[in-house]
Amino acid sequence: MTGEGVKHTPVLSTLFRMMDDSELQGASEFIKDRLYFATLRSKPKSTANTHYFCTDDEFLYENFYADFGPLNLAMLYRYCCKLNKKLKSFTLTRKRIVHYTSFDQKKRSNAAVLIGGYAVIYLKKTPQEAFRALTSGSNASYLPFRVEQLMLILQN
User: Fold this and answer.
1) Which architecture characterizes domain 2-155 according to CATH?
2) Domain map of the chain by residue range?
3) Is the preceding peptide bond at 144 cis, omega within 30 degrees of 0?
4) Per-residue pLDDT reduced to its tens digit, 4-46
């Protein structure tokens, strides 16, 4: 399975073997055999071995002008609580957990901030390690954030 000519690791290829290349834009492993982040074209169905969840419509940025993020600290906190609950859930104990996001570049960048923040806070990853996980392999680049409010202040 490839994304823009780059092969996924064997674990990620196995995890997403049911999807063709047009369905999967990129995937990252945060906890070996347990926690993943993926960009998927359509909503997957959870299986006996894998639980999928998406936060694209749950944690929404209230834009000032044409900006779209990043999400605020309260949303990161709620995301961390949600993910910790999933990781500790008895019914999900033996399942791989996949936080997936859509191909929408704005939602994808905000979802990356959430799991990247979780990796730094709870998994004790360095910011560089979290960034590397999100950008390595077949992962496409992320849309950079714009701070419109700051731009307006600087113009005045």
Assistant:
1) Alpha-Beta Complex (3.90)
2) 2-155
3) no
4) 433 455 556 556 655 555 577 788 899 999 999 998 888 889 9
